[in-house]
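Holo prediction — NAI.
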Amino acid sequence: MAQTEVPEKANVLEISPEQLSELEHVLGDYQGKPGMLIQALHAAQNLIGYLPPPVLRTVAKVLDISLSEVYGVVTFYHFFSMKPRGKHVIQVCLGTACYVRGGQEILTQLQKELSIDVGEVTEDGLYSLEVMRCAGACGLAPVVRIDSDVHKRVNPSHITNILKNYQ
Amino acid sequence: TAPQHFQPLSPLAQEKRVVLRNSGYIDPTNIDDYIARDGYIALGNVLSGSPEEAIQIVKNSGLLGRGGAGYPTGLKWEYTLKAQGDEKYIVCNADEGEPGTFKDRLILEGDPHSILEAMAIAGYAVGAHQGYIYVRGEYPESIRHLEIAISQALDYGLLGDNILNSGFSFRIGIRKGAGAYICGEETALLESMEGGRGEPRIKPPYPPQKGLWGKPTVINNVETLANIPPIFLNGPEWFKNIGTPTCPGTKVFTLTGNVINLGLIEVPMGITLRELVYQAGGGIKNGRGLKLVQTGGPSGGTMTPDLLDVPMAFDTLPRYQSALGSGALTVIDDTHCIVDVVKNFCEFFLHESCGKCTPCRIGNKRIVEMLERISWGKGTENDIEKLQFLGEHIKRTSFCGLGQAAPNPLLRCLDYFREEFESHVIEKQCPLN
Ligand SMILES: NC(=O)C1=CN([C@@H]2O[C@H](COP(=O)(O)OP(=O)(O)OC[C@H]3O[C@@H](n4cnc5c(N)ncnc54)[C@H](O)[C@@H]3O)[C@@H](O)[C@H]2O)C=CC1
Ligand SMILES: Cc1cc2nc3c(=O)[nH]c(=O)nc-3n(C[C@H](O)[C@H](O)[C@H](O)COP(=O)(O)O)c2cc1C
Ligand code: SF4
Ligand code: FES
């Protein structure tokens, strides 16, 4: 997933007024069109990086949908995150085709290397670690996705080198 | 150039490219390349006949839906044509989320115009003027190629108003999924397209009666649609002569897991797993033995070594408690512990359960817990009985296809690999370590 402006520190929750007004502008494209909530949330997350309550309130207001409906949709889809994510999002595929070619060992190696668990963000806010269930690149398993790059035939010993490209 | 997600398989004499006829041979971002290979000719022909004639051709071809369930495409179109509605829709299901499957992706990226042409044909046949392609969010390249293709087709007057001066108008929009496997289930997909949580609806009514926004809707898989232009170009008889009499045409298989060559291949229906794994795939990696092949991903079928010579088709595999599904073939070698493999399948369903109904939401949780216990050497024989009972219960009582299919690998493996499960609970450790 595309990550744009990301907070310096993973636990900073403020959204600036400028960001909010830019958000309203972007959401304008989806105003008054039925069924566009998910597409609007994609756009919002692309812009802000994640979907904290002020963003959800803005989406609800612009699209004229109840906040509870917006919340229900955001929590349903794995793509959407209400928590800040790292500057780089690492997703290890544990779909069966990757699993039987060593996906789990890669995950274990990453957990060690980053000292975080699945679903967490490193202290410096640089990386979040997630698990995915098939990137559609199973022919080159095991795969790890970092942001929008898919790394193929990854070996646990490659991890350190791969991470050097994401600072 | 075609996207290369794999190393090539060894060629098979049977190989036949119908849906992959263009992928890798044309520049998918150039409509002229597609047209040079007879693109949009089928659409032109269809527009000069009647909708009923178009549907008859699809019915005569015997084409069965390639999304996994194998429902006759012609029938689906006919129901939609006959259904009452001021508006109708064509939806292409490009949510391909089944682990081990990447066939739709290759078609979307390598030959996007074939999908647009097929959707326009379907639109004319059933009386729809709007189509949507629901693409999984994980496929940005597919989305990009589709967007380019749509704008080129609009420029050429092959989409939009009054296509080829026929008076028929048809437009196509793209909707991006947001990482929920359940949204591949057609009614969950409709909920998601309407902007909500992707929770399945009760069937019937099926989408041909009540689909998007409650209007009659055709939902077809990418590979199903990719068959449509060649069927119209070459005639239904040509199509019927490929594959088996009851399951005509080709199938794209994606070969993954512990085989020597990984990749995808298009062959006539009726091929055997032995040919696919040992010839195209070059056999099991590192000289190991075959434990099982999961067909169609976790929600498809489990093929054990005794089934290597069964012809692969929608109607044959269910006789062996298996299923063709999406055509994914995940080969698992004998170094893998069966409890661990089954646990991976069940964790997948636990993760992807939408939570609407209790048997699936809670049942899969309990199954994963029991499997964890067994793999840690803390299971009892009673757990095996409970797994069996719970699996059958979930299968019978779940609301949608996800829950109904979820226990299949477990139940099949409990049967075939009974001893391996038992030695885990009796010796309190894995016989393979
Ligand atoms: N390609 C992929 O990534 C995945 C594929 N699947 C496959 O999906 C399959 C299950 O799909 P479902 O849609 O739940 O199966 P289903 O049997 O309910 O329906 C199959 C198709 O036939 C149509 N249909 C059935 N009866 C009909 C009737 N009386 N009138 C009109 N239309 C009718 C349905 O609308 C649907 O399009 C499984 O076989 C599985 O292999 C599952 C997960 C992922
Ligand atoms: C949990 C679940 C996930 C599914 N995912 C997909 C999918 O990703 N792509 C697809 O084409 N069909 C998927 N299906 C099958 C669809 O519900 C439907 O049968 C299919 O899109 C019909 O198209 P067809 O007749 O061309 O095969 C899924 C079914 C279930 C139960
Ligand atoms: S069976 Fe599972 S996925 Fe289907 S409706 Fe029930 S909870 Fe949702
Ligand atoms: S299972 Fe990992 S990419 Fe498909």
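READOUT: Confidence is low (pLDDT under 50) at residues 1-6 of chain B.
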